[in-house]
Every structure is written in C-alpha cells, then in structure tokens.
Please model this.
Amino acid sequence: MTSRIRRSTTVRVGISALGFPFPAPTGIVDYSFRTPGREASLGLAAGVDSYGATFVEGDAVVPLSRDRLALGIGGAGYYESYYNGTQGYYHNAAVSLRWTPSEVIEIVPFWHRSEGYGDEAGPIFIASGNGLPPPVRRRRFLGPEWATYRGSAINYGALAVLRPASGWTVRAGLFRSLFDDQQSFSHLLTDITPDGSANRLIIADPPIKIASTSGEMRLTREWTGDEIRHRVHLSVRGRDRDRRYDGSAVIDYGPTRLTARFDVPEPVFAFTEQTRDAVRQWIGGIAYEGLWRGVGEIGVGIQRTDYSKRFVAPGLAPDRISNDPWLYNINGALYVSDALAVYGGYTRGLEESGTAPDNAANRNELLPAILTTQRDIGLRYRVGGGMTLIAGLFDVRKPYFSLDAANRFDLLGDIKNQGIELSLAGNVTPRLNLVGGAVLSRPRVTGEGVRLGRIGRRPVGLAARRLELNLDWQTPWVDGLSLDLSASHSSRIPATVNNLVSIPARPNVDIGARYRFRFGETAASLRLGVNNLTDERGYELRGAGAYDLFNGRTFSLFLSADF
Model:
C-alpha cells in the first residue's frame, strides 16, 4: 500500500495495543486510509537524491456534493537509482470516493495500481566457507542489463461504517489484491572466495501471479457511563488467496570475478510447469474492552480460525494442510497514579511465515502458517513536561525457519526471544522533540538441532541490542526552520545458521533540515536530508548466508506544496 491510499502506519504492540481489539503477538500494523475530505485540495511533491533518483507526486480532493460525496485522485512517477548501480522505473495511481448518504453511513470505495519496469536485478552475494564476502565497490553495476523486473500490483475494494443507533457501530471492508510479476530475475554470485572469485547464477522466473480476496465485518456495542466504558466486538474475517509460482529456469554461467563485467546476450529460457497453492481462512471472534477512568483498562478476546492450504506441485500428488486453533488475548493496565500505569498481557496468534528466499533450494515456496505467543509486562510513566517513559519486559516465542543441511528453507526449531524494551518520547522543550528507544534481548533457538550441534543457538537475522534516537528541533533563528537527527545502533547480527559468521555491529546517522513557508495561500515545505552521514560500509543480510551491499551516504532534496 503506497501513500496514494495510505496516510500513515502505526505499529500497535504492548501498551499501545490497548483499545485495539484482537491484537497479535508481534504487533498489529495499523494502516490509516487516505479518505477524501470535505474541502478541495491539491498536494504536489518532487524530489531528487545524489544517486540521481527522482520522483514527482500529486494528490487531489474534489468535493462533488457538499458534505456528501468527495473524490480523491492521485498519481506518482519514480526513477530509482540504487546503491549497487542498478536502476528502475515505477509509477502508481489511485482513485477513491467518500460517500455519506446520511449522517449514519459512510462508504469509501477505492482503486490503486502500481507498476514497475526496467528494474535491474543486482547481485546477491553468497560467500564460500565461514566468512563475509570481500569488500565490493558501490554504485558499479556490471550487468546483465536484460535481467530486469516487470510487474504490477492492484488493490481495490471498499470500507463502510454504519451507526444504526446510539452505541452501535457496524464496520465492514472487502478487498481484492492482485500481484502480477510478468518478468523477474535473481542474480546470485555464489562460492565467493576472499580473492574475489565466484560462480554466477541467473534465475529467470515465468509470470508469477497472486490473487487474494479478503474482508471483515465487525459489530461493536458500546455502553458509556460517568466513569466506566464498555465495548463488545463481534468479528468475522475471511480470505481466499491463490498463488502460481516456480517453474524457474536456472542458468549457471560458471566461474567469474566480482569485478568482471557481464554482458552476454539474453538467452531463451525454458520454463517448466508451475506450482500452485491456495489458502482459505475464516476467523470468528469476540472481544471485550473495559475502561474505568482513573483506575485502569482491560481487553479480552477469543477467536477461532479455520485455516487450510492446498498445494499442487508438478510430479507430486496434491497435498493439503489445515489448522483450526483457538487464539486468545488478555491485556490490561492499572493506573497507579495520574503519572504511572502498570500494564501486562498475553497473546496467542496465527501468522504467515513468508516464502523461502532466493538462495534456498525451495526458493519462493510458501511456508506454513505458524502459532506465535507473546507475554509482556511493564510500566508507562509520564515524566512531566510532555515526556513519557515506557519500560517493558517481553517474551516472544515462534517456530524457527532457516536453511537446513540440504539448503532447504525449513523448520529447524523454535525461537525464544526475551528481553526489555525502553522508550522515551515527547517534548524536551517547546522547540525540541525527542523519540528514543532501546531493545535489549536474548534471542535463542531451541530444539533437537541445537542439542545435536547442527545449528547455532542464535537465530539468523536477530540483533540482541538495538538503539534508536530521533530529535527534531524548531530553530529560534528562522520561523519554519527545523533540524532533525536520527541515530541508530545495532549489535552484531548472526548471518549463518551455524553462527560462525555475523554482520558486525554498525551505527547509522541521518540528519536533515526542513523549512516550512508560505507563498500566498499555499503552504510549502523544503527538506534537505543526508542518510548514512558517516558513510558506513559493509553488507546487509538477505537471508542465511546471503548478502547485499549496505546503502552509502546519500543527499536528498524534497519540495512539497499544498494548495
């Protein structure tokens, strides 16, 4: 979902999940929809960065009937230029309506399409033995230029709200999502040695399609007294997703070097029969929320899900897996004082675990849904002067998927991740805003593979420590001028299943300046940013034992105006 139809994104976890029915163990990603307002408006934006990437965006609201019908339209075009020297082109467009035929009904249909083409496939680096690949110069694409991505994504549907009587609300949504990769490639440099020799693989995919229909209907009843508010939610959700993939053609171009140009003619690919899978899922649930002013709040929910996946692969008999677990949550907060609240909760959920990565023998295979749990307890303290401190202990448990000895991306054990999460946010002064946080954890893999010494105790891709600091300062020298800083630090990240290779600990600092001004009745904003200020180098993880370059220092300039 791009910003054509998405206004903002909020992750609700811990105490922020209170007041949100049916939370999930690792958080709910809550999208705020860009609903057309009642006033006519036009927003334009354009930008460029030091790599040469450029974009233009435009969004407008057109009232069609006073307070009853409004049209939202938008579009954008992007030329992308990346850290590895590749480039690509993208554009998107969206249309939405807000129709309020009466004071108690609101209906918002929408349509959105995104297109990508000419996006070159940069290499993924896979080292030989237990080490990282040698350093590679950024911004140097050596080919092939014909290995480019072409695809589209479409989302359309409608949101509706009905308030038939005082205290009653019906919310409904129906969505259709289509994902069509007409052409895609993976470019792997494998068996890389310290002197820069490697083996080159190009994997071409036939058209890959995903189609999903999903929806929810939720009935909410609310009772509000002088001190206590009760809410009860009844929800039914469902989805129907079909996927066609695999059938790829793999060409081994043999030995090469990391610095060698690769410009052979595009071959004719011999694709094979594709794999198909279908997911069907229904979820029914009931949830209760209670708020007692000055005392506390509580949320309780229970859901039953019916999940099934049918899998048809070439040369194999059709297979089917199903799961129908009970899912539940209980969370709450006690207001010890006006400044201090203590909270805690337990959540059990079922979530998708993604697909196997490009460097796996079962590349692109859809992994099974997994049961996950989260326990957390903590406190929220309003320090005063607009600052809020949150400190919490958490325990998250889920199955562990990674590469096995046969290079299949499969279930290897379980992850138990325990730790403490800290955040401090608010206005330090009327001009200085701060958002800071830290996660100090102890992620561990458990299971027979660990006991037998086949896999390491640390899960691939999880850092034990993450620190974040964001500052925004409105300067007293020039009205409308603000300066901002974003700094982060991650401890080393295990990069292989045996834990013998890690991405080193690395800081990252971004700085920026924004100037808000007006010309006539138009509000405008000019922003200058510098990402990776210290030009940190090295690799980022793209799956167990697979790496990509870390983005270099870039300068960006954006201009936006609202008419």
About this structure: Residues 127 and 192 are 4 Å apart (CA to CA). Residues 448-451 form the longest helix (4 residues). The chain has a mean pLDDT of 94.
